[in-house]
Design a protein that fits this description.
heterodimer; A: 358 residues; alpha+beta; Rossmann fold; Alpha-Beta Plaits; 2 domains; 6-stranded mixed sheet; 12 helices; 16 strands; 31% strand; B: 236 residues; mainly alpha; MetI-like fold
Chain lengths: 358, 236
């Protein structure tokens, strides 16, 4: 388990102080894939760097797995309940127990793939042969055994990130921090890296904390998510709940960015014939979640209330194994029937939003 | 052959022994002061990189002191530095004249320049690589040797070449403290005695030295650059 309590970090830039992380508390369970999403400058990168103390927080508390808790007071890192100042050796050992991957891979360009993966294994007491075996094991894990003698410049972006993952996991850490690991990759490579992370999580029980500004990443691999804005975590919970019931504006923004239904705004703005309604018609947005999808909502209401439903846009996704989605539709029928139908839907956990009245 | 040389460069042939001894003096000064300056400059360049504000071991006082000293010595023209350092040289080397006496000022003249070159070479190492190394638990020494110096080798080779070439330039002035060398040979036997052939030969010899160094430097820097970049058809 990773526990972060009341973490603060302020930078002073040219006399101006910037609160990068403000009183953040988070708990990540073992084996979870935990997403942290936010716009650039929201403090998510600083937050994750505080976890392996690449960045020294100003204050806060960290509990990582079974290791001694770490308290930070006035920018001083203290360990254990006795709060003894941390030694560099301890700090480095702690960092070795947490893997990290980066947006720009940060491989050593003058070292081969093999040497890159072997980097963190040097000076750990392993023999040459053990290092060789471990590197090959790691390269197998990321499916790059044939590239061991290649240099990073000979690899594609996705392959580079695979090498970085192998390197980050070489010391068998239980935790992997991912800082925008797919943001510099094309869609195919992104898909394959996300798939790899998911399978590592399942195969090795690896706990992953993934920072991103793309909701698609959260949707694809995370089980829990925290939304950050101005250094604070403004919303947190299971990905499904946050997606289905976003409470903050910024969360709604992110959710909308990942939804096909978002396109209706554009259609409305362009006054597309698709979303034009005749008198008596209604353009509605229907949002389904766990409790409502599966019920044959549409056929039910068209039968019960004699309203006809003309679907403009629809999108249903599967999150954590449960469907989530919605549709934009034009509802036609008598005013009374429409009202009844809408009421019925709300009673059946369908969120209804009227976009336009004819 | 001898006849031909006598015809073309009579004075050089006449002062053959002096010519060769000044050649060896130049070589000795370059190599010895070069090696010392290489070690000190590399160390100071690393020190500046590590202790600067964004470095892996920030230390404002140490950084400031080295930074100011480097700037100070860089701004003194070498011929002035040569005489300015005489008392200090006498203290360290026991003498202020001859090749031995020239070594100290040569090192002082060369180190600040080389330090800046090393600093620039290390600055070109992507900070992301350093961060990755830190995330893998590398300590200060590990990062210096396995990331900074390792990744910057081609740039360091280039910087060393440039410095070695400028060092040869400095040694020609060392004649001012009686260290001999090609420079003083050219002035004392060439210019002062009006033997143009001596000056010409000295120029050619220096040209050969410099070209050789440059060639060696280019070769090494190419060889140490990520070999993958030069594999045909595999460039990404």
């Amino acid at each position: 388990m990773i526990e972060i309590r009341n973490l603060n970090k302020t930078f002073s830039l040219k006399g101006r102080s910037v609160d990068a992380v403000r009183g953040v508390s988070l708990t990540v369970q073992d084996g979870d894939i935990y997403g942290v999403i936010g716009y650039s400058g929201a403090g998510k990168s600083t937050l994750v760097r505080c976890i392996n103390l690449l960045e020294t927080p100003d204050s806060g508390l960290l509990r990582i797995g079974d290791s001694e808790e770490i308290t930070v007071e006035n920018g001083k890192i203290l360990t254990g309940r006795e709060k003894t100042p941390i030694k560099e050796k301890q700090l480095n050992a702690m960092r070795r127990s947490i893997g990290m991957i980066f947006q720009h891979f940060n491989l050593l360009d003058r070292s081969t793939v093999f040497e890159n993966v072997a980097y963190p294994l040097k000076y750990t007491g392993l023999s040459k042969k053990e290092i060789r075996d471990r590197v090959m094991e790691m390269l197998q894990l990321v499916d790059l055994t044939d590239k061991q003698d290649a240099y990073p410049s000979q690899l594609s972006g996705g392959q580079k990130q695979r090498v970085a993952i192998a390197r980050a996991l070489a010391n068998h850490p239980k935790i992997l921090l991912s800082d925008e690991a797919t943001s510099a990759l094309d869609p195919d490579a992104t898909e394959s890296i996300l798939g790899l992370l998911r399978s590592l999580n399942e195969k090795l029980g690896l706990t992953i904390i993934a920072i991103t500004h793309e909701m698609a990443v959260i949707k694809s691999i995370c089980r829990h998510v925290a939304v950050m804005e101005d250094g604070r975590v403004v919303e947190e919970g299971s990905v499904y709940d946050v997606f289905a019931h976003p409470r903050q504006d910024i969360t709604r923004h992110f959710v909308a960015s990942a939804s096909a239904l978002n396109r209706v705004d554009k259609l409305l703005k362009e006054d597309s014939p698709l979303v034009r309604v005749q008198p008596g018609e209604l353009l509605v947005k229907l949002l389904f979640s766990r409790d409502s999808v599966g019920d044959s909502v549409i056929s039910e209401i068209s039968r019960e209330y004699q309203v006809s439903i003309n679907i403009v846009l629809a999108s249903v996704e599967v999150l954590e194994g449960a469907p989530l989605g919605g549709m934009i539709a034009v509802v036609k029928g008598s005013e009374e029937h429409i009202a009844q139908a809408l009421q019925w839907m709300e009673a059946h956990y369908v969120e209804v939003e009227v976009l336009r009245r004819g | 052959m001898d006849e031909l040389l006598k015809q073309w460069i009579p004075n050089v042939v006449a002062y053959k022994t002096r010519f060769f001894s000044s050649l060896s003096q130049t070589l000795e000064m370059t190599v010895r002061s070069g090696l010392i300056a290489f070690v000190i400059g590399l160390a100071l360049g690393v020190l500046l990189t590590v202790t600067k504000k964004e470095g892996i071991r920030p230390n404002a006082i140490l950084y400031r002191v080295v930074d100011v000293l480097v700037n100070l010595f860089r701004s003194i023209p070498f011929i002035i530095l040569l005489i300015f350092l005489i008392p200090f040289t006498r203290m360290i080397a026991g003498t202020a004249i001859g090749v031995k006496g020239a070594l100290v000022p040569l090192v002082f003249g060369c180190v600040p320049f080389y330090t800046r070159q090393v600093e620039a070479a290390l600055a070109s190492v992507n900070p992301g690589k350093v961060e990755a190394a830190r995330s893998m638990g590398s300590g200060t020494l590990g990062i210096i040797f396995r990331v900074y110096l390792h990744e910057a080798v081609p740039d360091l080779v280039r910087a060393t070449t440039i410095t070695a070439i400028s060092l040869i330039g400095l040694t020609t002035m060392a004649g001012a403290v009686g260290a001999g060398g090609i420079g003083s040979f050219a002035i004392n036997y060439g210019q002062n005695q009006n033997h143009q052939d001596i000056v010409n030969v000295c120029v050619i010899i220096l040209l050969v030295f410099v070209s050789l160094l440059q060639f060696l430097g280019n070769l090494l820097s190419c060889r140490t650059t990520n070999r993958g970049l030069f594999v045909k058809g595999e460039r990404s």
